[in-house]
TrEMBL record:
<dbReference type="GO" id="GO:0045505">
    <property type="term" value="F:dynein intermediate chain binding"/>
</dbReference>
<keyword id="KW-0505">Motor protein</keyword>
<dbReference type="GO" id="GO:0005868">
    <property type="term" value="C:cytoplasmic dynein complex"/>
</dbReference>
<keyword id="KW-0243">Dynein</keyword>
<keyword id="KW-0493">Microtubule</keyword>
<dbReference type="GO" id="GO:0007017">
    <property type="term" value="P:microtubule-based process"/>
</dbReference>
<protein>
    <recommendedName>
        <fullName>Dynein light chain</fullName>
    </recommendedName>
</protein>
<keyword id="KW-0963">Cytoplasm</keyword>
<dbReference type="InterPro" id="IPR001372">
    <property type="entry name" value="Dynein_light_chain_typ-1/2"/>
</dbReference>
<dbReference type="GO" id="GO:0005874">
    <property type="term" value="C:microtubule"/>
</dbReference>
<dbReference type="InterPro" id="IPR037177">
    <property type="entry name" value="DLC_sf"/>
</dbReference>
<comment type="similarity">
    <text>Belongs to the dynein light chain family.</text>
</comment>
<dbReference type="Pfam" id="PF01221">
    <property type="entry name" value="Dynein_light"/>
</dbReference>
<keyword id="KW-0206">Cytoskeleton</keyword>
Length: 109
């Protein structure tokens, strides 16, 4: 894993879900090299789908921009060293209400 602590920049998740995201990122970095961003993202997304239901999306990298619509309470953007991780639930289920979604923009330079 990369040395240093995760720094959460933006989130609307409950603390327990945030901790789950940070723990999964640390675990992914134990399994994969920091240059394997796609594998890290796949690992975090797959594990979050299992633990918290389907529909999670994960973007990992050192330089990306985003503008996403997400379910309320299902968004976190954090960094570990120079690696940025964006995790959010973006798909709408049949019981989703329109007011449960928020749009956020985040650019990492």
């Amino acid at each position: 894993m990369l040395e240093g602590k995760a720094i959460v920049s933006e989130t609307d998740m409950l603390q327990t879900m945030q901790q789950d995201a940070l723990n999964l990122a640390a675990k992914a970095l134990d399994f994969f090299d920091v240059t394997e961003a796609t594998e890290i993202a796949r690992f975090i997304k797959t594990e979050f789908d299992v633990a918290h239901g389907a529909g999670w999306q994960c973007i990992v990298g050192t330089d990306f921009g985003s503008f996403v619509t997400h379910c309320h309470g299902c968004f976190i953007y954090f960094c570990i060293g120079s690696l940025a991780i964006l995790l959010f639930r973006g798909s709408a289920g049949p019981d989703a209400e329109g007011d449960q979604f928020l749009a956020l923009e985040k650019v990492v330079a």
